[in-house]
Write a structure and sequence with these properties.
CATH topology of the largest domain: Glutaredoxin
Shape: elongated
Order of helices and strands: HHHHEHHEEEEH
Strand order of the largest sheet: 2-3-1-4-5
Number of domains: 2
Number of strands: 5
Radius of gyration: 17 Å
Bound molecules: FE2/S2 (inorganic) cluster
Helix content: 40-55%
Distance between the termini: 25 Å
């Protein structure tokens, strides 16, 4: 992982102003940012560890704890709520057997809440890794989850 950090930071010209992008790249393969990754990024950028850690923990798109292969970000904002998000979220929890901010025992899915995904026209909505799913119903989420290996 350390050589990967060095490579990614080098690709971003060791620019602290590109920290968000650097962390996004590093999180792609593991779905989270390990402590050693954060420390190495700080070293490579020559900035305080607290600065990198602060960014990694401030934005909901980053995680500093291990997550599943598929990260489900379920929209909890008002337009989705009005369109029945609570029922859909309950269905996901029932199917996966996890609560919000938990990962399935097999390490396949992590369930998180997020604010508006910007697709309110197809509320309720969720994002799994980088794919957005809208017009969700309990039946539709079951179908979506079954297709993911
Ligand atoms: S409120 Fe859910 S996508 Fe906008």
């Amino acid at each position: 992982m350390l050589s990967t950090v060095k490579q990614v930071v080098t690709e971003h010209e060791h620019q602290p102003s590109r920290l968000l992008e650097i962390l996004r790249c590093l999180q792609t393969s593991t779905n989270y940012l390990a402590e050693e990754t954060i420390i190495q990024v700080a070293k490579e950028l020559d900035v305080p560890i607290s600065q990198v850690y602060g960014v990694a923990t401030f934005y909901s798109m980053y995680s500093t704890k291990p997550r599943g292969k598929y990260v489900i970000r379920f929209c909890e904002s008002a337009p989705c709520h009005i369109e029945g998000a609570a029922e859909v979220l309950a269905a996901i929890q029932g199917i996966l057997g996890v609560d919000v901010d938990e990962t399935t025992d097999n390490g396949k899915f992590s369930l998180e809440l997020t604010s508006c995904l910007g697709v309110c026209g197809v509320a309720p909505a969720m994002m799994i890794n980088s794919t957005v799913y809208g017009n969700l119903t309990p039946k539709k989420v079951q179908e979506v989850l079954m297709t993911l290996e």
